[in-house]
């Protein structure tokens, strides 16, 4: 590159980053992009760095160098790596002043390139681990060099942290090595600079340079303290990882001056208006408060740190230092919360300033609660602080009367203040005040996660003074319901809070007893308080349900939806108490044998438990426990009848109904009795409302069943729940005849629809099925049957459903199940029909829990597979015909890929069901299997690889099908593949799947490749008569097809398999594949098939190693890989190779 070329390059970079128009930017992009494609562009880009002062050119060149080096690191020689590092160090040192004056924005990109070189070369020897001494010359020069040196450390400590993704295993080892070799010295440098600042020994005249220096050193301290010391790659969005695992030799952190240093720097940063510095100070203090317990040699060291933290935070919040800034306030709240979570209550009590500190935190918390502008995330840390004190206070045996009384008063005041603040915000939200929108306020009622966090905190806080808190909430509830204009937002909040109170005091007998003892003398039992709360909510719920339309005072359906969701939340919390309590009462006197089989009818109505004095039903004024259950069921039915237009309410109602039906409680009612299981569905079946619903499950009063396709998907869950109850009832039937009668009676509405569809399908050419009058019933029937089939978890129950659908097995063409294949002939292009239909059949042929287990003399397994085959053929033929016309899809996911995913899942379930002898089809010249395989493979081949990976969620059955098809039907797969190019396309898709982040897809791809290669190897090396799966022998035609057709040297299949072998070896070398067993199986087959390719790949990998020692070591590992391995794919030889591969992978990774 000469001066003219450099000038042109600078102009293009300027047009790319600051385009005068879109055309100029597009042109610049086209010209500059090739520089990112290979290592050959490195000299040109380095020339730009050495000779240009244009900021945009420097940004592009440094960014391009970073990307090129990262993508092509194995192609960079040892000398080039050293030269690049030295070039960047010298360049940055010599141009420090010029860069910060003329191109300050480019500095971070240049530093990033240097750090990437250090990171990528770190494990290649001590000569690449000299960054600390390299940076020392920056720290010994001018202030700006000092700042630049710290910037190198800051970016290096951030970039070298391991992250999830390609190269994760190698970079994790890099980070752990860096932790031991360089990080301690880097952190010591940061502490030394901070100490000089604290002692006033560091003076910088230029205020801006001082700010930059302070910010960089604080940022460096934060990066060091937050380093992933254990290489666990924690989730940065979560607060669960609260322990800082610093090494033992970081003893400087035990010095009491360290926290004082950060607090003083925080003060000075706030005074100077250095917001970023102040935030870093607080973040470092949060990390200091989280040091692991084993880091301290004794309790005195831990207490000294806590004392410093408490004094510093008390000064901070009492003087409101920097708290006007929301971020500083947030970090202060985090710091207070972290001090508590990282220490035990008894440790906190030992700190001399604990009481003073608590008083300050209490005042700070009350102020934060009253100030609604403070974001909920900040308040959450303060509320969690007090909530986490509740259980230690309740269980503290060494109570100081005055101190504990004050603590209890603090927590009670905070609890009721926070509850009051929720209602205040509900008032503001209902009035729609603009100030809330201006502050970015989030309404927790509309945010399930935020609401859940707040309710959990309220539940924890209320346990300490449960009766007082509950009484306060009941008073608020009474005042709200008596208002002339009811505020539904406030009502909803109160119902949610009451649900949290009820649900928050469930638990073990010991914890319940501890909570009861915590209440003042003369307090009511907990279940009486809960009964009073429940009575108020149930009364309001009945009032709301009395008007099944929108309330007159509310024109917004959102308000009703919010209130209804709060009722469901309360019911869920009440269920935890009621079902558990009801089960305890039943188990107290029922014989153990009755309980073990779920027979609650033998239980006495008396409750001898010493803890519970009155039943919840008595408090509610109801006759018995079933009446309580009736309230819950009645609400469910009301919602299904009248609230189905509120989709969130419908969804949650059905989920709650399922939980009631499927719930199982472990009951410990009497100390000396062993625990028993109580199935809550048994309780439901004895309820009259449930019995009525079961008898009228398809009633026209259940609006969501008849409201069209929009609500159709909820039918599946509805019938899955009813199916559970139905099969519980069938199991309890005295005879199989009774069970069958019960089932047939229940299924009568579905039978009537099925009969109507059957008549239409058998009238003329069956085109009567394609009518609007039958379309919706067909969709509904498929969804209903899928739900019922999901509830079939045993052989007996599945057999009942199977016989209901396959009602004439001796004449399969006259069975009712044939309706579905007939319907697909007319509705194949209607996704609203095909999706539920294919999903039902996929569920019907799915042998989960071995529920499909026909007798040996039964043809039902073959009938079931053939029907699945007919459905696949009916759908696939038409979809492939449509593909030939190259249609334009409005929604390709819905119109094409969702259906293909469903049909491949259906066929995979049928292939994997283990209820069909597939040899029968070939023996009797039945083409069901071969045609199905052929069409399924053609569907797979119709999916472009880019789309396959883009729509992976719905197309995962693609890989499952290929694994199953190649496992026992590799011969058929090769037969139905029309050409070597088509088979090569499938192998290319498997190659793409090997690099997927979904581990199940990777495993299935390995298995599929192994299946194909084993088939090819056996055919090519054994010839005629070799076993090719399924117990069949290869014919001369099979051998010719493979050796002279598919595996022709240089052909598409041959080339793809060689490429797969190279890829797998690269994955092993990079440590990118977790299951050595899975990948070793296809690798052995590929090595035996392509020894020349393996030798070439081995030589290439050895040459790519950076040092001669490394090359010799890797070459030795490859030699040992094949020790004891013979030219055979027998199980014993495979296992031996797998062991060798495991040792090989461990060896190359440990030194990479």
From TrEMBL:
Q: Name one GO biological process term.
A: protein export from nucleus
Q: Which UniProt keywords apply?
A: Cytoplasm, Nucleus, Protein transport, Transport
Read off the Pfam families from this record.
IBN_N, TPR_XPO7
Q: Where in the cell is it found?
A: Cytoplasm; Nucleus
Q: Which SUPFAM superfamilies match?
A: ARM repeat
Is Repeat set as a keyword in this record?
no
Q: Which GO terms describe its molecular function?
A: nuclear export signal receptor activity; small GTPase binding
Q: Which GO terms describe its cellular component?
A: cytoplasm; nuclear pore
InterPro entries, per the entry: ARM-like, ARM-type_fold, Importin-beta_N, TPR_XPO7/RBP17, XPO4/7-like
Kindly indicate whether the keyword Cytoplasm belongs to this entry.
yes
Q: Where is the signal peptide?
A: none
What Gene3D superfamilies does the entry give? Leucine-rich Repeat Variant (1.25.10.10)
Sequence ranges assigned to domain Importin N-terminal in this UniProt record: 28-94
Question: Where does this protein chiefly localize?
Answer: cytoplasm
The source's superkingdom equals Eukaryota
Protein family per UniProt? Belongs to the exportin family.
Record PANTHER family: EXPORTIN 4,7-RELATED, EXPORTIN-7 ISOFORM X1
Name used for this protein in its record = Exportin 7
Q: Which gene encodes it?
A: XPO7_2
